[in-house]
């Protein structure tokens, strides 16, 4: 990665993906990182781009004080702005690769749900979360048109948000749902477990196909290395996520101090899952574009065709057969999904 040519939001997103934390303490830029994560290249870039990073963090902090849920991933451009709801974990940077691939003329804002900032409480109803987002969008951009997007379980909140804005007279040009999981998936534990199992099996098949397509052993080993680093990060995150619970139960005595950020994220995930499980979508007459990673996803436990019950006019767009569903918005699949979005816009 050529960090020198990378935009500041993308650079910070890349650091966050490697568990490298960067923040402001007064006027000073602070950084913490796991052993070995902060390479010489990253250290040089942090030093050389210090003033840019401080400026961006100050701008983001100022925006957050006014509309704390709106995170500008790409704030510039002349196209209709996209406001996107992430999955149940509330990870706004899951849209970073897609926002970058859509280009400099496409404004893209991610919506961070309440409950992550330490000042607000997570909400247990999709309708309440949609109301929260609607107020901030209308304050941030009083006049439309808007494009509302949702990813994975965030599709339910995006669906309700688009309806709510439309009921208030705002022009919602399109509702874009990426790999949407229908609420009915969450209403039966057996169905949810089946869906999760299919996702894991699909991941194995995906990587076997990738390996079979590799032109050389060197490329194959590089692919395995990339996957191993990704899985290592996921395992560390899952392990960290259990620590607050272990500390609460006394399983590790005084050795573990709960990380408040991880505790808030864990609580948000549980609350968001409950909210989607309780939600029943009703009829929507606006334009809906549903982007699936591939045609096989139609038969997945996500039950994407159930959205036709309340939006029979929905348009479906399919990514390539090789697209890996759970990471469809990230590299290397982000360019394919961005092209599908451009097709729908045309």
TrEMBL record:
InterPro entries xref list: AB_hydrolase_fold (IPR029058), TesA-like (IPR020802), Thioesterase (IPR001031), TubC_N (IPR041464), TubC_N_sf (IPR044894)
Pfam families in the cross-refs: Thioesterase, TubC_N
Residues covered by the Thioesterase TesA-like domain: 83-280
SUPFAM superfamilies in the cross-refs: alpha/beta-Hydrolases
SMART domains assigned: PKS_TE
Taxonomy, superkingdom: Bacteria
The protein, known as: Thioesterase of type I polyketide synthase or non-ribosomal peptide synthase like protein
């Amino acid at each position: 990665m050529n960090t020198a040519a990378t935009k500041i939001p993308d650079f910070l997103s890349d650091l966050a993906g490697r568990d490298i934390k960067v923040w402001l303490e007064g006027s000073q830029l602070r950084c913490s990182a796991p052993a070995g994560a902060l390479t010489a290249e990253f250290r040089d870039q942090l030093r050389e781009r210090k003033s840019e990073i401080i400026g961006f963090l100050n701008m983001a902090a100022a925006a957050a004080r006014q509309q704390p849920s709106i995170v500008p991933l790409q704030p510039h451009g002349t196209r209709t702005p996209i406001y996107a709801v992430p999955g149940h974990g509330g990870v706004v940077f899951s849209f970073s690769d897609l926002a970058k691939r859509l280009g400099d003329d496409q404004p893209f804002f991610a919506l961070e749900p309440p409950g992550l900032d330490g000042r607000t409480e997570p909400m247990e109803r999709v309708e309440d979360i949609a109301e929260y987002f609607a107020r901030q969008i209308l304050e941030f951009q009083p006049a439309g048109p808007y494009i509302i997007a949702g990813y994975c379980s965030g599709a339910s909140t995006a669906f309700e948000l688009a309806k709510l804005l439309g009921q208030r007279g705002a022009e919602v040009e399109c509702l874009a749902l990426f790999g949407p999981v229908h609420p009915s998936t969450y209403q039966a534990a057996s169905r949810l477990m089946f869906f999760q199992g299919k996702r894991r099996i699909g991941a194995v098949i995906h990587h076997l196909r990738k390996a079979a397509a590799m032109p050389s052993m060197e490329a194959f080993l590089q692919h395995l290395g990339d996957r191993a680093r990704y899985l290592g990060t996921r395992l560390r995150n899952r392990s960290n996520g259990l620590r607050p619970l272990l500390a609460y139960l006394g399983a590790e005595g005084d050795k573990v101090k709960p990380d408040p950020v991880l505790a808030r994220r864990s609580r948000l995930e549980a609350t968001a899952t409950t909210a989607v499980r309780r939600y029943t979508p009703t009829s929507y007459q606006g334009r809906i574009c549903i982007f699936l990673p591939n045609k096989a996803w139609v038969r997945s436990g996500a039950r994407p065709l159930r959205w036709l019950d309340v939006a029979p006019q929905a348009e479906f767009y399919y990514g390539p057969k090789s697209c890996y569903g759970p990471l469809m918005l990230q590299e290397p699949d982000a360019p394919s999904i961005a092209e599908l979005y451009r097709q729908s816009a045309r």
